[in-house]
Amino acid sequence: MSATTFDLVILGGGSGGYAAALRGAQLGLSVALIEQDKLGGTCLHRGCIPTKALLHAAEIADGARESAQFGVRATFEGIDMPKVNEYRDGVVGRLYKGLQGLVKSRDVTFVEGTGRLTSSTTVEVGSTTYTATRGVVLATGSYSRSLPGLEISGRVMTSDQALQLDWVPAKAIVLGGGVIGVEFASVWRSFGAEVTIVEALPRLVPHEDEASSKALERAFRKRGITSKLGARFAGVTQSDTGVVVSLESGETLQADLLLVSVGRAPNATGMGYEEVGVAMDRGFVLTDDHLRTNVEGVYAAGDIVPGLQLAHRGFQQGIFIAEHIAGLKPRVIDELGIPKVTYCEPEVASVGLSQAHAEDKFGADNVETYEYNLGGNGKSQILGSAGFIKLVREKNGPVVGVHMVGSRVGELIGEGQLVVNWEAYPEDVASLVHAHPTQNEAFGEAFMALAGKPLHAHS
Ligand SMILES: Cc1cc2nc3c(=O)[nH]c(=O)nc-3n(C[C@H](O)[C@H](O)[C@H](O)COP(=O)(O)OP(=O)(O)OC[C@H]3O[C@@H](n4cnc5c(N)ncnc54)[C@H](O)[C@@H]3O)c2cc1C
Fold first, then answer.
1. Is the CB of 267 under 6 A from ligand 1?
2. All domains of the chain, ordered by start, with CATH?
């Protein structure tokens, strides 16, 4: 076998691509992983990790500002943004080094360069052709989209530029109240900015259960974050000192910058996919439930495949493809069973069906819900967090949805994920002991209540 022939050739070294590479190598496949930028992709360098580092710095800022209410004397003096960025870069750098070491230790051949699919078995990088004998994986990710006519430059930015800021805006406008928008709104508010979110739909985080959107809107209002819902963006002008955003209603808003967070588009054009005959729809690569494209031997993973654009979905898809190619029989990934977390303050987490979707599926009379208020949970009281855990079950059937809002509830979604994916009944979970005092205990309480035996909750 020549050095350019491998079992698996993977285009894109982000969450989807590198997971396929690591799992493939673990299963004994020879693997080439082609990446034009940095191993780790969006999640590690421009997404999940750096934003969560900023959110952690934001939590510390809130802690300092609010310390007096816990009897701790401290003064919040401000944000040293270069220092925050240094901390963030340290986190990213350590993970990057670890990932590079992992790829090397598994004997994955890492190819630096821009690849192009040239046939169902070959990817070209410069003048070298890499041939795959078992499969090609397309995992070229996504990029921040904008609106028609809305140019990204200067003070009008996407999350890519917002992450590079070495100053804190005094006033920020966030266009789009989805996950990325509310996370930046939360960070900047904690850092001291006046923040306005402009969202065309009638609620924040519109893909979540309506109760979660309402709770987040309330919590943001309390934090002084303004949400303009059902508000349509008309245009923006910018000068050396700021931006002026106009809405279709005729209202204008002024700020230091505008963050455009209106979703992410697949990065799948101009790389030979269409020429090789890969079926696509609005830029996304279409696959079956085994992540096979219509071209035999060509698979796709991650944000280029329609569905949730989340790193852990990409990981699982990459693992699935490697296992499938290696001849194992991996379980088909159920999109509904993938947990979602929005890491603003308070956090929003969910898995499974919202109440509305469950009612569509089973009929309104066949759905039961229960909302446990975190007010009754000791640890949440200690943390000073309001919020709830909402369970959605099919009447006399399993739990089909879990929805939460509150500080740090993202860490609780693991149990929700097990419950929904294992189709557990509230009665099953109610008999399991949850540690006291934890926020996780609120789960136990919610399941006990839904099983008809509430403890620290009113019947
Ligand atoms: C601000 C932000 C915050 C986020 N936070 C979270 C979060 O908290 N949790 C979560 O689960 N998800 C989060 N995401 C989403 C997550 O980052 C993506 O879902 C994930 O990175 C998708 O992985 P991927 O492998 O599909 O693509 P990517 O990670 O984008 O990787 C694709 C890679 O392919 C490379 N590439 C593209 N074209 C070529 C080519 N022709 N040749 C060679 N290489 C190429 C790119 O350089 C890139 O490295 C966030 C995203 C953003 C932007």
1. yes
2. 5-144+265-335 (3.50.50.60), 156-262 (3.50.50.60), 346-450 (3.30.390.30)
